[in-house]
Amino acid sequence: MKKIIIATLTFGLTIIYILSLPKNSTAQLISTFSIVAIDTLNGDVGVAVQSKFPNVRPVVPWAEAGVGAVATQSFANVSFGKRGLTLMREGATAEDALRILVNSDEGKHTRQVGIIDSKGNAASWSGGECFDWAGGLVGTNSAINNFGRKGEIIVGKGFAAQGNILVGKETVEALANTFRNTKGSLADRLLASLIAGGKAGGDRRGEQSAALLVKRAGAGYDNTTDDLVDISVYDHQKPLQELERLYNIHKLFFFKSDPSNLIDITQTICKELQYIISDKAYKGMLFYSGPIDGIYTNATKKALQDFMGWENYDVRIRQDNKIDRDVLADIRRQYKEYSLNK
User: Domain 27-254 is in which class?
Assistant: First the structure.
């Protein structure tokens, strides 16, 4: 069956969509809570989600740098992800895009969606047939929460939080309040919000999977993609705890050093590093064979760079006489564990 949707958006553009709609819905229930948000200062945009459903990553969260983000859940219409991003890429606001998606879907009463555009406009929808507790909350220009009833689209600024089959609305309130009050990067704030939502009650059926997706232009491993963070917990007894652990690993190995986190390689630190990287038994590789004297020569620097590449600290390798505190702490931790177990 096909349906023609003619949408005149708030900025005067008319978009005509010819949509193929399935006669029989095969959507599966994704009992979930999520938050979509943007950092309007640097353009980071993303989604954090937890669900009583395996492998939530390819179903719920969708994001594109410079465009926006979508979370599609409950009896999820996965096409809302790509179609929502396409609409916003073509100029639709979050509200415009959400209205087109919802109005084109015969199963809209079972859907739940959160969406945000590159300007920070946010919107959320919870269909009237979503299982309780279900609802959404969007950011506003004040501290007043903007809750939506099932069956209505609510709009605001900065973020949209939503959930279904929850213990209660406290989960969505925790998502919103934590996002507002947490400092740090967008990824930090999204993860903190998700963890707070879980502690506030979360999904009535329990936990199973989680995901954190954040896009930033050119922020991928080699600066050729926009994948700042893309972490998925497929199936776990404590997916939020595992997501936090994986995020900390990701930051260490994929984020470049914060200049404020760099310290000089002093004679004491240099001597310690020379000792570690000259221990051939440690990694089965002799990285440094010079004197252990604490003098940071070019030979020591090259050996440390090789060691850091071996240990996958690629993006934090330095050409000067500094080292990242987090890298140094991880090197010390791993060598201590090795020393205790050898």
Answer: alpha beta
